[in-house]
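task queued by scheduler; priority normal; single chain, no ligands, no partner chains; default sampling; output format set to structure tokens
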Amino acid sequence: MNGLNNQAVANYRDLTTGKDGQLFITAPDGTNHFLGEVDTFQVQVNTANADWQPVGSMINFAVGTGVSMTLTFTEAVIRDDITLAPFLDSIRAGEFPLFSFQGKLTQRMDANGGQPTEQRIVFKSCTPDGAIDLMHLQPGEIVKRNWSFRVNEMPEILAKLGQQ
């Protein structure tokens, strides 16, 4: 054994970038609408733990107690019919709206000519969370709206990267 790493080095041409992703919103009739006005989005999982330290132990152990997930995005303000109008209509009716989203990430063909694969994850029962920009105007800048949602169901992976 010579101690060298004989594993193949990842080919940088196979790396996935932000331009390879898309965000869709699911309408009440079940159709998915591509949110082409979104320039950034992210989904994060936050874990919660309780500390436990048994007698005689120097170690505080972390005991998992739950997770929460947040989906955030920034959209250039082009239209209000997909997110803002349904949000305001629901609030006016005295209820919180629920939205469903789908994130898509396409992995380009690999250097050996393999077929592209995609990852699709569905985020259901998303309710608006935190501050939402109804209007945020600044001269000379594109008008954008920030959204934050709490994801209230476990995400479902419809397609996984690297599998065909």
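post-processing summary
- The helical segments are 84-92.
- The chain is about 5% helix and 45% strand.
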